[in-house]
Amino acid sequence: MNSPILYVVIPCYNEEDVLPETAKRLYIKLKEMIKSGVCAENSRILFVDDGSKDKTWQLIEKYHAESEIFSGIKLAHNRGHQNALLCGLMTAKNYCDCAVSMDADLQDDINVLDGFMEKYKEGCDVVYGVRSSRKTDTFFKRTTAQGFYKVMQKLGVDTVYNHADCRLMSKRALDAFADYKEVNLFLRGMVTHMGFKNDVVYFERAERFAGESKYPLKKMLNFAWDGITSFSTKPLRFITSLGGALTVVGVVLLILLLILSLIGSIADWWMPSMNIIMYAMSFVLGGMTILSGIVILCIGVVGEYVGKNYFETKARPRYAVDVFLNR
Predict the structure, then answer these.
(1) CA 116, CA 235: separation in Å to the nearest integer?
(2) Both 135 and 279 in a single domain?
(3) Domain tally, the chain
(4) How many CA atoms lie within 13 A of 303 on its CB side?
(5) Which tens digit of pLDDT belongs to each residue from 211-260?
(6) Which of 85, 185, 198, 311 could link 126 by a cystine bridge, Cβ 3.0 to 4.6 Å?
């Protein structure tokens, strides 16, 4: 049996600080794997420049000129991590037997490639790289990340716990994945949705080698929300349940007020003092304000789903390739 052709896909955005070390380590690792027959000689490292504003693309061009093991894609403009990764995978599927996606910051252990290839040769079409622990994370990052996976699970979104985007996909899986035409991407949910035989490989995630994280809190929250709204309608069902519950509460309060007015308690309690009237008015206005906030929030959630349908209906291209370096 011939050794499989492996493409390692690395999305990059302003990674000039870490890219020299990333390229060096991956070059050594892939050469070792080729020499030992784990993968074929025409295996490649594919960098995808997601519209970087620094010297990331110049470095990719330099590595490609120095060695045929390096390939590169330059997107016409910044489209975000998920689109850049998708572009790399969809390009790699035309040349490889399997592709591995990893981040450029060296937090994903490159030695996981050996475990990926073992599982692939055992017949797995998808192999997930899963963190064995989160001891390198801050307390805030660890808590929010674990909360994210738990919330996604509660909302019915099928994800692999502590798995990000470090994974292997066979050509068969990549071909099937090409049929997913969503504009709003949540790849880790889309991959698990396909099925196929799969397994996991555990690894220790390191600290970022250099540069700054491209996923601040705001982007993390947006990413989580995109994942929820792309794969679950439970927020809409929650709004329906909330509306029903508030309606029941309103009916009960109305019946209670009618009963009290009929027996005269309201008249005896309402008239003695303007302070009591002002207190009651404040209570009513406060309740109306809270209910108005809930209504606006619910409209916002519904609007998110409508907006996603709007973008899906337009079906614009998810990325545009400016330059592709391969040989």
Answers:
(1) 36
(2) no
(3) 2
(4) 6
(5) 565 555 566 667 666 766 666 667 777 777 777 777 777 677 667 666 76
(6) 198
Say whether both 224 and 261 belong to one domain: no
Chain-centroid distance, C-alpha 321: 22
Distance CA 283, CA 156 (A): 38
Query: Do residue 134 and residue 280 come from a single domain?
Result: no
Is 250 found in the same domain as 170? Answer: no
DSSP assignment of 7-58? EEEEEESS-TTTHHHHHHHHHHHHHHHHHTTSS-TT-EEEEEE-S-SSSHHH
Distance CA 265, CA 257 (A): 10
What is the per-residue pLDDT for 34?
94
> What are 184's two structure tokens?
């709003």
Report the first-to-last Cα separation within the chain, whole angstroms.
24
**For 261-289, how does the pLDDT look when each residue is reduced to its tens digit (9 = 90+)?**
666 555 555 555 445 555 555 566 666 76
Can you tell me the distance from the alpha carbon of 126 to that of 232, in angstroms, rounded to the nearest whole number? 23
Distance of CA 261 to the CA centre of its chain: 56
Q: What residue numbers bound the domain in which 140 lies?
A: 6-232+317-325
Non-local CB neighbours of 171 within 8 Å, separated by 6+ positions: 93, 96, 97, 98, 99
- In this structure, are 72 and 184 located in the same domain? yes
| CA-derived radius of gyration, the chain | 27
Same domain, 258 and 155: no
CB atoms within 10 A of CB 227: 23
Q: Give domain status of residue 1, yes or no.
A: no
State residue 138's pLDDT score: 64
- Select from 59, 64, 104 the least CA-distant residue to 84: 104
